[in-house]
Amino acid sequence: MTSGNASTPGSPAARRHFHTFDALRFFAFLKVFLLHVPIIAFPWFNYVRAGGGIGVQFFFVLSGFLITYIICEEKARTGQLNLKNFFVRRILRIWPLYYLMVAVAYITPYILEHFLHLPSSGEGYRPNIWVSVLFLENYKMMATGQHANVSPLSVMWTLCIEEHFYIVWGLLLYYLNLKDLPKLIVACLLAGLVCRMVYVANNIPTSDLFTNIDLFAYGAIPAYLLIAKGEQVDVAINKIPYWAKLMFIVSLLLTILVCSQYKTDKDYVAITSLLGLLFSLLIMLILPENNRLKIGDKNVLSRAGVYTYGLYLYHTLVINLLKQVYSKQNISLDNAASAIAFFVLALTATLLCSVLSYYLFEKPFLRLKKYFR
Q1: CA dihedral defined by 182, 187, 188, 190, rounded to 10 degrees?
Q2: Phi, psi of 251 (to 5 degrees)
Q3: Closest to 295 in 3D by CA, of 20, 18, 17
Q4: Taking a C-beta distance cutoff of 8 angstroms, is the pair 31, 275 a contact?
Q5: What's the count of helices (H) and strands (E) in the chain, helices before strands?
Q6: Dihedral sign from CA coordinates of 24, 259, 154, 205
Q7: Structure pTM?
Q8: What pLDDT digit, counting tens, does each position of 271-305 carry?
Q9: Nearest-angstrom CA–CA distance, 158 and 156
Q10: Distance CA 219, CA 224 (A)
Q11: Is the distance from CB of 39 to CB of 341 less than 8 angstroms?
């Protein structure tokens, strides 16, 4: 299934490999990871761990950029989009580990009770297999006002939103001429903000695609500019002084720290738009190939970022298991040494699980993507 000839905004260029993106993914994961680490030994840690949802918002902006760039690059280069291949590639990337984790979530309580003799969590709603299988976990969460009471379903609502975005964005861009993409981006920027306002006014959790579509759209902005005016974008960004770029990054980190202290959906109605814009600008700054902000693929952060999908899904399993072990052994997390050990063990074990999962389980599926390009 391919679209008809597309009106392209600029001459096509070879698809780029984006340095630094893996490192950025790892930073986004780390923000979520810190939220779930139950360390109480250091009062200042509460300020650092707060606002884990901002890491998720960064993931959405990155996804908006990459998916939009992939689609637009194909349409600019070939004049059309092979929608079947696009969806199959997304399926091969997301579905195998997603459904493995669904299976793990449903057998975890049994393993905890009968093999490890540990209690399972009673907090949150009891999961429904059809809700999980059909990528509807976010709507179950919205309906109940709770998270699932088993890991990692408690964080998989974000993957549901991602999946909904792939479907909607793929279909929209399949039929859309690239020259009209800016109109769609503007419409989505407004729609996301308005939907958040409406949801918050009616006490509805903002955990669906409609209330986050502007984050994906903010990511689409640099993707469109790169396709439409690639060389001009590089030249313009390279003219920005290095010190100014560093000041922007410092300002962004301070903004994230401040915004992280807000707690409710109402607080984030406008803040989400601000963060989406700042994340979009950050992506713009790192786009040029020759860039002093570049974090190379061999950097340890980039290497870790390759396994971000697994890191995101495995970390709650590891953390909750360690919490049970600590509790059974009467080890308190208000002790500095115990807290540091917990953090190191949780991060190390999560990384180990993710690396093994990537090479032993995910990689065979990823190799199949070459047949759908």
Answers
A1: 130
A2: -60, -40
A3: 20
A4: no
A5: 16, 0
A6: negative
A7: 0.93
A8: 999 999 999 999 999 998 888 888 999 999 999 99
A9: 5
A10: 9
A11: no
